[in-house]
Fold this protein.
Amino acid sequence: MEPSVARPVGSPISRALEHKLNREFVAVGLLLLAFFVGSRLSTQFLDASYLLDTTSVYIETGIIATAMTFIIISGNIDLSVASTLALVACVTGVLHAEHGLAMGPAIICGLLLGALLGFFNGLLITWLRLPSLTVTLGTFALYRGLAQVLLGDHSVSNFPDWFVGIDSIHIARTLFHNPPIPAPLIIFLVLALIAGAVLHRTVLGRWTYAIGTNSTASRYSGIAVDRVTLLLFTFSGFLAGLSGLIMTSRLGIAKYDMGLGLELDAITAVVLGGTDIFGGRGTMFGTVITFFLIVVLRTGMGLHNIKPEQQMLVLGLLLIFSIVVPNLLQRNKR
Amino acid sequence: MRFREIGILVFLVILAGATTVREPRFLSAKNLTDILLDIPLLMVVAMGMTMIILSRNIDLSVGSTLGLSAIIVGFIFKSNPNFPVWAGAIIGILVGLLLGALNGILVTWLRVPAIIATLGTLNVFRGLVFVVSGGQEVGANDIPPSLIELSRTSPIQLPWIVIFAVLVTIATHLFLRYTRTGREIYAIGSSPKAARLRGIQVEKVVFLAFTLTGGFAGLAGIMYASRYGFINPLTTGAGLELSVIAATIIGGTNILGGSGSVPGTVLGCLLLGVINNALVITNLSAFWQLAIYGVVILIAVAVDSLIRRQLERAAVDQTR
């Protein structure tokens, strides 16, 4: 489905090369730049353990962005991830606190619920042949709404001690300064590694790219487009559920408005990292680099007492420039 | 598409009927007025969104545009209490037009995909609201009474904001149905490549759609101040894009562009307005609103898809 205003063109080879090198290089460059500027502006910034700890605050965005990378590369989008996060957190909390279910089984229920919510998205998209934007817009409202119906203004906070505070679990590494790495970051990196391996080294990954490039051609080439799409959305829901549990553990509380706006952050992370919003192009490496870029930027801005809304202004500008600048450069090269 | 609109109307009537049975106050003059006053804001912005979605684009930034233009006008009133309301309204609309034009430049000239561009401007404009306001609210004392009056009355007993909304709606309908540019919007949404080959200036038309939508959002900002009497940097306009896109899609506009209508969107707005009101008046927890929105969106598009497949199957059968 071609967009209303066409993308800039160039010879396919130079375009592919430029695109692959361009966007990820820009992301790495921005990361280094942000690091440099941050360190100049605040001495607290260069404290390795401080930085590592701050990744925990945004880790849900990173985890969701991992699945979102697959979804966007396959030519779809999932706006319901943050709502899934909240619903899973609330349901798990209610199951444990109000129905006496032990936390272990409650966690399993939560993860299953996340997968189920994602599966429902995938079902509507593949079975009813509905655009993913519309379906996930509906479930974005529905899932968050259900969380709201479930908990209303209340929150659940009596979680067992072993569950709360996952971000305080550190795994010390014998690196030069021995900075302790918080557990959520390990989870994210392992996840990103596995997801990246699947994306770049398995047939499933190639299928994802194929579907995003041309789903009709993929279908006629024998790729089970519907099954892959179903799988990707289930995976997205599962990771969103996982993020919900991690966020609950970090905050020690479950409320209906958790993760509000997180889907936009995740999409920003994926697109900023070089993934084409229309599908067919992108790397997990770009997403991971951009995640760290967002952490560095947000932390740096936070240290300067820049409010979250103003931080979003910067991120919005960054998102726009990340597309405008390569577009302009490409035009001038012709 | 006629069936579609009749379907929504039927659903609307059933819903209204069921609500009245539960709570007879639903049909009272006061309540109907409340519904009437909540819809103009949604409808005005939905007119713009309809044009945008018809052209195979999307605008996620309308809520932030509303907020930014509202806060700018609000602060003008705050520091100049005697500033004429009509001048403030014009400034609000101009700010909206400017912001919409920014979106338009991003999408057409700089070739940023609409969803990304407006995702970015959603954040940028909302951030600007904070920069302009310093986090401060524009309270009830700062809004000129004559502005509030616009939601109360007018020479013909219908509040001004309703009149504005009706005018905008009629204008948009006539534009889309009877002018060449309006028809070009449909063509662009149907097939941008074909439209371009046909000689349609796709960039100019899409730019116009975004600019107009921004202007409508600016107008809605004034309406917001008039109806609610305050402007809050964090909440004014936040989440509006969901309702507007929902109303447009529920009203039968295809998210992929090329098909849809103003009457449909009007019905979509009415439906959402009635749902909101029904929730409140029957004392059903307001917490259900979001979930119901979601269900309504899903049902509307699912029904659309099923009907379309039935029609396709019927068409194929006929050719045999």
In short: Chain B is about 75% helix and 0% strand.
